[in-house]
């Protein structure tokens, strides 16, 4: 069983419980790419000051003590927000903290040349730069705890280590970006351009994260009502289509028994195919199509087995239908326990849908072989 298959809006964690927050494969790829780039941007922003501090020291005639204080002050703020960032992320969501913090450290990076250039070069100016660097570290201090919280809440346990290790490698990539792109910009355009370039890239990433990656998740959460409503809309016209097809087959010469069997083959067969297909798709739209087909097929059922008691016992159809419906209600509670057992055993919704499809196929075969519409009482 492919554990990377995720059905509709839910997945199963390693302990067998369904978790609606688990990312689908597509979402996981989108978040992996975005957070890797974000971690790279974070480190590019962090290492931009160490790259340009010699040029700033020379231009502003700073002492070694001043330049050392400016560099080390980043970590004063960085250490302060680690625990707080993790706590806040667990409470309100890691993505919210990541975005809010990214806005802060991206703007600080972009505005750093303005802050340095227009401040007086006396000790008061250096003190303000130190304060800004502390603020820079404060914003960046929440990134990794927030990212840890985000991934732990949206990935199954077996995937978290590999996923997070890839994200952490973004720190090396970001440092490499500063060493290559930053050095090139520094040599040809000056130290101010380094902050502007890296700051702009950081702001662009923040906007991408908020208005593309997170926005897609928000849309995913907001379309839950579609799953509950749209598929059932198709069952209404399919009922009329099944009625028309049933009457047409009888009118052109098919027996009532053959007609009922054809209708049930369409119903149970299309349901089985749709349920199997759900386990093969990874996009929400296609999963919705499969569910719609499965539920729409129930409309044909209304013109097949549902009216069969009237064929078998015209004078006792109420009693026969009651007996049939009683048996038909058993899956209403037995199926829930069976689905839970399958989920706990296989940790996959795919197996649940496949088991349901197998039951449909078995029922279809049994009805085709033994089904009848000839009156018996």
Summarize the structure in short.
The protein has 377 residues and is an all-alpha fold. Helix content is 81%, strand content 1%. It folds into 2 domains: 201 residues, Up-down Bundle (Growth Hormone, Chain: A), CATH 1.20.1250; 145 residues, no CATH class.
What key attributes describe this structure?
377 residues; 16 helices; 2 domains; mainly alpha; single chain; two-stranded antiparallel sheet; rod-shaped; Growth Hormone, Chain: A
What does this structure look like?
The protein has a two-stranded antiparallel sheet. The relative contact order is 0.12. It has helices spanning 25-60, 64-78, 82-92, 94-118, 123-140, 143-154, 157-168, 170-189, 191-222, 224-251, 256-278, 284-296, 298-301, 308-312, 317-346, 349-370; strands at residues 11-12, 18-19. A hairpin with a 5-residue loop joins strand 1 (11-12) and strand 2. By secondary structure, it is mainly alpha-helical. The chain is built from 16 helices and two strands.
């Amino acid at each position: 069983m492919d554990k990377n298959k995720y059905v509709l809006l839910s997945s199963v964690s390693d302990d067998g419980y369904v978790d609606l927050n688990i990312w689908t494969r597509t979402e996981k790829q989108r978040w992996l790419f975005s957070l890797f780039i974000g971690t790279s941007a974070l480190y590019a922003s962090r290492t931009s000051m160490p790259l340009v501090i010699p040029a700033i020291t020379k231009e502003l005639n700073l002492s070694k003590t001043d330049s050392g204080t400016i560099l080390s002050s980043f970590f004063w703020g960085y250490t302060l927000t680690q625990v707080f960032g993790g706590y806040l992320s667990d409470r309100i969501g890691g993505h919210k903290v990541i975005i809010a913090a990214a806005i802060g450290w991206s703007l600080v990076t972009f505005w750093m040349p303005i802050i340095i250039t227009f401040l007086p070069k006396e000790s008061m100016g250096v003190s303000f730069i130190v304060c800004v660097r502390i603020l820079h570290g404060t914003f960046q201090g929440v990134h990794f705890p927030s990212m840890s919280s985000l991934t732990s809440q949206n990935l199954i346990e077996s995937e978290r280590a590999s996923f997070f290790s890839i994200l952490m490698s973004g720190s090396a990539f970001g440092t490499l970006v500063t060493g290559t792109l930053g050095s090139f910009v520094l040599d040809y355009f000056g130290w101010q351009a380094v902050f502007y370039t890296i700051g702009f890239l950081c702001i662009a990433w923040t906007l991408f994260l908020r208005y593309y990656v997170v926005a897609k998740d928000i849309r995913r959460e907001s379309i839950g009502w579609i799953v509950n409503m749209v598929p059932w809309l198709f069952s209404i016209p399919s009922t009329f289509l099944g009625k028309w097809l049933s009457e047409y087959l009888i009118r052109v010469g098919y027996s009532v028994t053959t007609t009922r069997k054809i209708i049930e083959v369409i119903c149970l067969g299309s349901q089985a195919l749709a349920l199997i297909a759900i386990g093969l798709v990874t996009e929400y739209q296609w999963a919705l199509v499969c569910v719609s087909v499965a539920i729409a097929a129930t409309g044909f059922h209304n013109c097949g087995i549902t009216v069969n008691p009237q064929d078998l016992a015209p004078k006792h159809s109420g009693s026969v239908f009651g007996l049939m419906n009683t048996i038909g209600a058993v899956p209403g509670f037995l199926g829930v326990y069976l689905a839970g057992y399958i989920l706990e055993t296989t940790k996959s919704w795919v197996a649940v849908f496949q088991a349901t499809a197998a039951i449909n196929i078995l029922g279809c075969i049994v009805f085709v072989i033994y089904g009848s519409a000839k009156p018996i009482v």
